[in-house]
Amino acid sequence: MRFDWRQVAKPPAHDEAEITVIGPGFGECIVVHSGDGQWLIVDSCREPDTKSPVALHYLNALGVDPVHAVRWVVATHWHADHVGGLGEVFAACRSAQFFCAAALGEKEFIHYLTRTGRVTKPDNAKDFRQVFDELVTRRGTPFWTLGGRVLFTRPPTRVQPEFRIEALSPSDKEYSLFLDRIASDVRAKGVPYRAVVASDPNHLAIVLSLRWGNDALLLGADLLREATSDRGWLAAVSQGQTLRAPPADLVKIPHHGSAGAHSDEMWTNLLARKPESVLTPYSRGKKDGRPPKRSDLERISSLSRQTILTAPTESGRARKKNSAIALALSQRHIVTRRLKARIGIARFRRNIGSRNWNVELFGQAKRV
Amino acid sequence: MADTDGWQGWANPFAGRAMTAGHSWPNLFATRGVTSTPLWPSALPGVGYSPRGIVTPFGVPVGGWDFGAGGVSAGELGQLPQWSIPGHQDWTLMYQSSYAPDFAAALGTVATEEQPWFNVGASNVTRMLRSAPRETAPAIEVTAEWDGYVEKISKDHFVARMRGLKGKGVEGSDEEAEIPMSLVDAADLDLVVPGGFFRLIVTDEKPKVGPKRSYTSVQFRRLPAYTKRDLDAAEREADEILNAFRLASGGQATGA
Description:
The complex is a heterodimer of chains A (368) and B (256). Chain A has 368 residues and is α/β, with parallel strands linked by helices. In chain A, 27% of the residues lie in helices and 24% in strands. Chain A is built from eleven helices and 17 strands. The chains are: A alpha/beta (368), B alpha+beta (256).
């Protein structure tokens, strides 16, 4: 059944902060109202039925014009589940500034994009290329992001505290690791065309801290835990401490809740005790490999006031095929899974300066 | 033999009539330079009799057109302007006589270990196909087809993204699949890399006598390689983007 976007149609008040996490099972998009009618979009994924970006569907349902209202678009990293439709989003948000990891502005990556331009799938390379082309048309440039940078500050007013967007990652070390990995995907003379498969770990993920005065929330992107202090969550926590990020009472759990992204240091140093947690599942791959597992949900729930999952953790069964086709595949031990999913939305709102979040769930989203 | 002759030789006898199976064209190869591409995977008997794709090497762009693994049907063939392929590419149609004894007999050639391959001239191919014993042919139908690319590779299988092209419950679907490596033809194993394109095809064969049989095949596509011209053009585009970003940022370097 198609998601009816009219059910989310009520826009936030002028002085209301909003964080809406949309996760259809594969893909993730976060839409934030910072107050004063200014919006931030973090990552992008597509609506399963229309294939249009969910962020544009959502803003359209609220009656918000993305041309003027969206001030910032952030690509936390370039994996397909985070950039589906990003090119369309940025083209629609004509006043927005674009933020991405600084390493993506290096010659190596831009050459990689143009070399792979003849191979149009999957979306990640194509979408980044679209964003860059749009920026060239606008005579703009991305805001190259590294951990420890303040991306935006809105001064306080008589009625609202200061609003800041800060990046806690990626680290310098991850910057160079990413370039090494791009260099290893050789597209040289004599190498056959092939699709772009972003197989790099989430080295470049941008973790964001959004703060209104002393109230903050943490968007964990897909950052993973690494063993050394110059990478992953240890480096991000260090940057958070340097920036004096206040403890966040709402967190978008990193990397779909996987155990590899769990960091005790993140929970201890960047979050308030028992925060609200929201996560998007990654319903692809083998059942025993896709996050979050039951043990992940138990771990996150034990640390949270409440935990919200935007979509079921199971991937859909493949559509019912003709029985002869299904038999032919099974005889050859071919397993297929449907990738189509349904929209789930978790929306958090509160008046700027107040303590409690008002939580609304739509579609497939549910409390754990 | 220039490609123009060979491919036009294929096109004309098929135009507007059903292809017949039961004849020996499962092991024809198209070559371009030193790269040979199987028209049919020899390890999968029956698939080679499909009425689709017989005239098109899998995934190889011909004259700038990529017909894909499914190729074109016989009916479509007579209407395709692409078949007036410009002769500037050095295409050769070949067959392996050990797999194609009918061709060998018709052409009066004998395979040896030293010379198992023969060039097939256009007129010879035409003659052979016209002599196909249509009455013995089982009906062939491609019942399902997906276009996919490899995402991950493990020891005994690979994980792929697939888009359904044909078949009930298949067409238009977006699926993930785990496919055993054992289904990949040994000659194609070098193509099983992340990003490698393939087609998954289920074919039904309905003989005049006996039960219907289904065949499933994974056919990797041997795509063209990057050329110096491709890379030079990509470099120019990248430099344009980088320069535009530098100008927009007041001449400062991009990146960090």
